[in-house]
Amino acid sequence: MKKLARQWRKSAEDELSLPIRDDNLPMDTQEQEELVRSFESGHAQLSRLWRSVFVVLLFCFAGLLVYSIFQQVASPWELRYHAYFMEEVDSWMIICADWVAVVACSLAIVGLLHDSRHHRRWIWYSFFIGMEYMS
Question: Which residues cross the membrane (predicted)?
Fold first, then answer.
């Protein structure tokens, strides 16, 4: 039983330990390039994954805003978070503000979906629209 426990502990330690390499010998250029390429491809995959997560979140938020617009058009001031502003703001202003937020979300989605630097400027456009929307 003790022998089995030692073997199990040893195998568990081997899985968790870092690979040992002789650091006195430098890596050759080809090996370095392969290592860098593997890191870059891993980073690109994670970047695509997180961008798609944020695209889904923004899409859901834009859907909520569109639902809010239709509710405001169909029966003004029925939604609680709109009703707080009933005496200060007209209904059409709420609808316009929600449309501006939908446009900002759409621009951010376009910027996140495309991988080129050319399309990343859409994220900045949505940021500026959002900042203007807040003021």
Answer: 49-71, 91-113
pLDDT tens figures, 62-105: 999 999 888 888 887 776 666 677 778 787 888 888 898 898 88
Closest Cα partner for 107 from 36, 59, 48? 59
Domain ranges of the chain: 59-135
Structure tokens at 64: 């909520």
CA dist 125 and 135 (Å) reads: 16
Q: Report DSSP state, residue 18.
A: P
For 44-57, give the DSSP string: HHHHHHHHHHHHHH
Half-sphere exposure of 115 (CA within 13 A, CB side): 8
Closest by Cα among 35, 34, 99, 36 to 67: 99
CA torsion through residues 112, 54, 123, 92, sign: positive
Select from 51, 61, 68 the least CA-distant residue to 130. 61
Q: Dihedral sign, CA of 25, 30, 33, 37?
A: negative
Provide the whole-model pTM. 0.63
